[in-house]
Amino acid sequence: MKKILQGAQVKELDAKHISISGQSSQELMEVAALGFVDWYVAQDQFKEYGVLIFVGAGNNGGDGLAIARILTNQGVQVSVVPCFTDPDKLSLDASANWELLPKSVQLLDFNELKYEGDLVLIDCYLGVGLTGTLRESSIPIIDYINEFSGPVVSVDIPSGLPSETIHQGLAVRADYTVTFAFPKLSLLLPENAEYVGELVLVDIGIEEETSKVFDSNFYYLEEKDIPALHKSFHRFSYKGDYGKILIAGGSPGKMGALILCAKSALRTGTGLVTCHIEDSERDIIQTAVPEAMASWGLIANLEFYDSVGIGPGWGQDGRVHLLTQILEEFKSPVVVDADGLNILARSKELLELVPKNSILTPHIGEFSRLVGPAKNHLERLEMAKEFSVTNELILVLKGANTVISLPDGRQIFNSSGTKYMATGGSGDVLTGMITSYLGQGYEPENAAICGVYHHGLAGELAGAKKRKGLIASDLIEAIPETYNLLDIS
Ligand SMILES: NC(=O)C1=CN([C@@H]2O[C@H](COP(=O)(O)OP(=O)(O)OC[C@H]3O[C@@H](n4cnc5c(N)ncnc54)[C@H](OP(=O)(O)O)[C@@H]3O)[C@@H](O)[C@H]2O)[C@@H](O)CC1
Ligand SMILES: Nc1ncnc2c1ncn2[C@@H]1O[C@H](COP(=O)(O)OP(=O)(O)O)[C@@H](O)[C@H]1O
Ligand SMILES: [K+]
């Protein structure tokens, strides 16, 4: 899994990579520029566009000059706007790429900028080398980029955005940010979404091993990390091997949440699902999910189950007794969501009963009730870490780039998912998936990671077809496709 370092550590990371790989810094810049161009030319929406590249004097500008050369050689019409006064002031690698710039590239003076036709503006003005507050001289440049009528793509980071903090001042507001090696923390903060646009990560071949010596609790979860975390089953596996799970949820008028959760667990691979419900709701669950069994009253034989999911659509009134029974009698980790979390927030003494390494899946509202209100996402991350470490629990803080907070202090940002998942019932589907993996015998950490990643991927697959027409049931139907895509059997 990639470590998320600080922007200021990028130079050290490069130096380490260079000493291990034997690659020169200019070659590394070339790899980054080629990676950017590969992504760029694959974007159908830019097919008929020329490009206008703003370049600064540092290595971010160097990337831009290399991109200008490579795109020109691929037949794209390229103009460059140098945002520096003297080419002698360029960084070493930027200077080398300045010398290599093809003669056919048009150099445009920022003060006399006039352009015609469909253009994409590529922002290579300032990267992670930004220090302190933005200088006066940068303001007209960033204003110009922000007033540009066409699409804006920022390279590595939107110019003017600091690498680690929540920003409220002037910075480029990009439609896309194509970042290198690892996503900078600021690109993952919801408060900065208006600057970042869509986030794309380009791998530039720096081994994960290289960042081991750097101190960071933040990690970025990608598709390549997933297959190794899955358990494989053998030819003679029977339904008991895939887990027997209990879901305590649903209430009159909110049975849908439980139905989504149960179906999702079945599609994730669980062998046997039992739904613990109110007597009056028996017909609904048996009709909507014939594959599931139902139980009611006090729970008999809790030890029969491999995992328990608690909360979707449950309601809070009259549930404390049942929740206490589960937490006292079920000795393995459980999954707690929705009203299960709301009860814990109201009756904090129950928190001590929650088995260690259980997985709690709050959205921001539930987090605020359970752990406390946060000023911003950075503070929320810090509070989540403290909560996970102190209580030895796994917190899955849901949202775009869901964060998995582990009892050892690591915090993992998810890369999969789409805005189309912001629809009622998406969270119930996630609870079913994580409970399913726990029941299949996955370590709690892996159950949370696989659940969160596959859930987001199911969202991407369903979202590609249904866009804003996506509903939570579409996520469930897309779960099997995620196994095909990652070749998980
Ligand atoms: N491993 C990787 O990820 C790789 C990273 N690579 C790339 O390197 C980039 C980092 O490059 P970097 O360190 O040269 O700095 P960069 O971002 O160009 O900024 C320096 C410029 O900003 C200016 N400036 C500073 N503060 C300012 C302010 N407050 N207000 C205004 N201006 C200010 C500063 O001016 P100066 O102080 O020198 O006068 C100088 O001109 C990184 O983002 C990525 O794109 C790839 O090439 C390869 C592999
Ligand atoms: N903009 C978004 N980008 C990616 N994922 C999202 C986004 N909005 C919501 N999600 C995901 O959808 C799910 C919503 O969960 P939740 O808020 O509990 O919904 P519900 O209570 O309706 O089931 C979470 O897993 C969250 O990560
Ligand atoms: K930039």
TrEMBL record:
Details of cofactor binding: Binds 1 potassium ion per subunit.
Biological process annotations from GO: metabolite repair; nicotinamide nucleotide metabolic process
Gene Ontology molecular function terms on file: ADP-dependent NAD(P)H-hydrate dehydratase activity; ATP binding; metal ion binding; NAD(P)HX epimerase activity
KW Lyase (keyword) present: yes
Binding site for (6S)-NADPHX: 59-63, 127-133, 156, 257, 313, 363, 428
Listed PROSITE patterns: YJEF_C_2, YJEF_C_3, YJEF_N
Enzyme Commission number, as recorded: 4.2.1.136, 5.1.99.6
The protein, known as: Bifunctional NAD(P)H-hydrate repair enzyme
Organism: Algoriphagus halophilus
Lineage start: Bacteria, Pseudomonadati, Bacteroidota, Cytophagia, Cytophagales
